[in-house]
Design a protein that fits this description.
two-stranded antiparallel ribbon, 25 helices, about 70% helix
Length: about 550
């Protein structure tokens, strides 16, 4: 009995793993393990029976957590935008912009994947949408089929790391950190990863041009009367917008002072970036509307107008949501609510909103919210028992034996999360593992925002890893399983094999691992987005208290 009492925590953890490996639903596996081992601990006299009385308060605390409301809001926003065919419009337009250059279609898919990630935040929706729309075109013109599959799956998984990622919300909640800080910390690494993807596509196009050919002239649908492509007009519009954005960024502080701001305060960089981007996007939209609707001069080409009217609304929505969060104007929950309303208005403006679409969005958001709630309640029951039997002490002792100190701990934990990502969803990993690691993270003095962004990047990597990567299954579900006749060329094309999807993901997994290593060894990549960290010097604080007799005299007086 003494051995059982001493080893109750590791036995409980192994029992949970056994439950999970049997395929038992995660939420009920967590709850069952917590109840069974809690009753066992009471029988062994390890904890009093009254400790279960803390459970109702914990469940009530979950239900009162406003941060978790952001999950259904962002899910609803993403589903409305995806099912109102925004992804189809973006892929067609961006593909036409970059199509005439070698590797342009792959670059367009990466950029659209980033845009969808910043609006939908759902990996499944991004991968399936791009698989349905861009995969037939890529299989039609690309000679390297694994590369075509890899570009789509990798771009779709950007929803894991790019704000407003649901993964980052869950990680921030479990680590007890601000979601806004987690978003700011992930912003730079996410765009560095997008840049790494784009650089890889450019290098492949230069080294193996036959793998990523340019689209043929017959595949380009926007032509001017003289046969021009319209790229010059688009370039001029982009330069005007960039110039206005640069002017706003440069003179924003002076503008704020002129509007009555404090001249002694310098405006934060993130505030300047948001306002300059909003100014550039807004000006491009106004110029396109004036040219097309009012003056009808057709100064802008068809391609420039199409890019403006298709690209700017989702960009405005992104800056409305993320900009207000970064500037501290809105909480993530309020930003999610604005995003959901903005998605409905965008679908309504495009005349693509109907009751069926609304019902689908509400149903999916409700199902995800219920799933998260059940997993949270189960993990709370598990954590209650695990803490009562000194589980955190066992976890600390377990990781204390690891060589390498903080670096050894980070390598081991990230490797463990990477492997677990093969088998279970990121929700379960966040709800099970992160609360167990939290005491160790604090003991090792690890910045929790930095660690959270690193975990999100590792979880994104696991989405692509064969043979269990979820993104690979999403693409497999929409890729052609049998040989088919192409609708445009009328040629007989072979099916996309599962092994091609697996091969295509490996190169992008390596690129993501490069980013994980970069974040691990250069924390500034994450911490720079949070601004300067102010540390209070306790010794420099001058506390001048009045004598006790004088204080009592004032009170009684």
């Amino acid at each position: 009995m003494s051995w059982l009492v001493y080893n109750l925590a590791p036995i409980m953890f192994v029992g949970l793993l056994v439950f999970l490996l049997t395929g038992f639903p995660v939420a009920f596996a967590l709850a069952t393990t917590g109840i069974v081992f809690g009753l066992l601990a009471v029988e062994l006299g390890v904890v009093p029976a009254a400790f279960f009385g803390a459970l109702p308060l914990r469940v009530y605390g979950i239900m009162m957590n406003d941060v978790l409301l952001a999950i259904p809001f962002f899910t609803f926003m993403g589903l409305i935008l995806e099912r109102s065919r925004m992804a189809e419009d973006l892929l067609e337009t961006i593909g036409q912009v970059f199509g005439p250059m070698r590797g342009g279609l792959a670059i367009g898919v990466v950029l659209v994947g980033a845009l969808l990630a910043a609006t939908t935040g759902v990996v499944a929706a991004s991968v399936i949408a791009m698989g349905l729309i861009s995969l037939p075109i890529m299989l039609r013109y690309f000679t390297n089929r694994p590369l075509a599959a890899g570009v789509i799956t990798a771009s779709g998984t950007l929803a894991q790391i790019l704000p407003p990622s649901i993964v980052l919300i869950v990680i921030a909640d479990q680590l007890g950190q601000s979601v806004g800080d987690m978003y700011q910390g992930a912003f730079i690494p996410a765009f560095m990863l997008v840049g790494l993807y784009l650089l890889a596509m450019v290098v492949v196009a230069l080294v193996r041009p036959q793998w990523l050919p340019a689209l043929p002239p017959e595949a380009l649908i926007y032509h001017e009367p003289g046969g021009a492509s319209g790229h010059r007009s688009l370039g001029v519009l982009a330069l005007i917008g960039a110039a206005v954005g640069w002017l706003v960024f440069t003179y924003y502080s002076a503008l704020m002072v002129a509007m009555g701001g404090d001249p002694t305060l310098e405006q934060p960089t993130d505030e300047k970036v948001v306002m300059s981007m909003m100014a550039a996007i807004g000006l491009a939209w106004v110029l396109a509307v004036i040219d097309h609707k009012i003056l009808r001069t057709n100064f802008l080409s068809k391609l420039a107008r199409q890019v403006t009217f298709v690209l700017i609304p989702p960009l405005l929505l992104i800056f409305l949501v993320l900009g207000t969060i970064f500037l501290g104007i809105a909480t993530p929950t309020e930003g999610g609510a604005m995003g959901a309303l903005g998605a409905v208005l965008m679908a309504l403006a495009r005349k693509r909103l109907n009751m069926t679409l609304l019902r689908q969005g509400l149903d999916a958001s409700a199902k995800l919210s219920i799933f998260v709630m059940f997993v949270l309640i189960g993990s709370t029951l598990f954590a209650l028992t695990f803490h009562a039997i000194d589980g955190p002490v066992w976890v600390k002792d377990l990781f204390a034996e690891l060589p390498g100190g903080q670096l050894g701990f980070l390598i081991f934990v990230n490797s463990l999360i990477f492997v677990l990502g093969f088998f279970i969803d990121f929700f379960e990993i966040a709800f099970i593992l992160l609360p167990l690691l939290l005491p160790v993270l604090r003991e090792l003095d690890i910045n929790l925002i930095w660690f959270g962004v690193m975990v999100a990047m590792v979880l994104q990597t696991s989405f692509l890893t064969p043979p269990f990567g979820f993104a690979l299954f999403y693409l497999r579900s929409v890729a052609p399983k049998e040989d088919y006749t192409d609708k445009v060329t009328r040629k007989r094309l072979p099916a996309l094999k599962t092994v091609d999807i697996y091969k295509g993901s490996i190169a992008f997994v390596l690129l993501q691992l490069v980013m994980v290593v970069a974040i691990m060894f250069y924390p500034q990549i994450v911490l720079y987005g949070l601004g300067e960290v102010v540390v209070l010097d306790v010794d420099a604080v001058d506390l001048d208290f009045m004598p006790l007799e004088e204080e009592e005299a004032i009170v009684f007086e």
